[in-house]
Write a structure and sequence with these properties.
Blueprint: E1 11-14, H1 18-31, E2 36-40, E3 45-50, H2 61-75, H3 78-81, E4 83-96, E5 102-105, E6 111-118, E7 126-129, E8 136-138, E9 145-150, E10 155-157, E11 166-178, H4 180-191
Antiparallel strand pairs: 1-9, 2-3, 3-4, 4-11, 5-10, 6-9, 6-11, 7-8, 7-10
Helix pairs in contact: 1-2
Length: about 190
């Protein structure tokens, strides 16, 4: 079997509305009763609190609070990724305590990512596996950052060694409808080859 190596990208940028939302989100997550704790031997998961089981329910209070601004943020990524539309398919929060981890896994749809809601400097980082050389890429995100990457990329949240709570929001996205400008560009390039 021949292997053809393709490059891809991971986007990382500040969510401008982070300071506006952080306190309210953390208050809601701390009061949240409809959550599960996930401990899974196969994936090495040890997640203190999450609402992944309701990830397609956009009527949760915290989702209604932030969804419009997250949609605008994801739309700001369209031009870079050469698409016209983005759909948020799933969204959920996760909290990790001491020894918390989310083992190597992938997601559905075509992009996924993480919004770092409560994330101090020494918290466990997100790690990706580069499918070209199988090397680990450690994402040096900061609180308030959002990262987006193709959902087939194997990734994890490394072991949380501090006895503090790390809080993230994760999401699955569908970017679709290739932008007209990009279609023209690649069609023009194709004429020369």
């Amino acid at each position: 079997m021949e292997i053809i190596k393709l490059n891809s990208i991971c986007l990382i940028n500040k969510f401008e509305k982070h300071n506006f939302y952080k306190k309210n989100l953390l208050n809601i997550f701390n009061l949240e009763k409809n959550f599960i704790k996930k401990k899974d031997e196969y994936y090495s998961d040890n997640i203190q609190k999450l609402d992944w089981n309701n990830s397609s329910d956009f009527n949760r209070d915290w989702v209604k609070l932030i969804i419009k601004d997250l949609q605008l943020y994801f739309e700001s990524c369209l031009k870079i990724l050469n698409f016209e539309k983005v759909i948020i398919n799933d969204i959920w929060f996760q909290q990790y305590g001491l020894n918390g981890t989310h083992g190597w896994h992938t997601h559905g749809f075509n992009y996924t990512g993480v919004y770092y809601v409560d994330f101090k400097k020494n918290y466990a980082k997100t790690e990706l596996i580069n499918p070209i050389d199988n090397k680990k890429i450690i994402i040096n995100a900061e609180e308030g950052d959002i990262i987006i990457f193709p959902s087939f990329i194997i990734h994890r949240s490394a072991l949380q060694k501090l006895n503090e709570t790390k809080t993230i929001i994760s999401f699955n996205l569908t970017f679709n409808d290739i932008s007209k400008e990009y279609l023209k560009k690649i069609n023009d390039i194709a004429l020369y080859y």
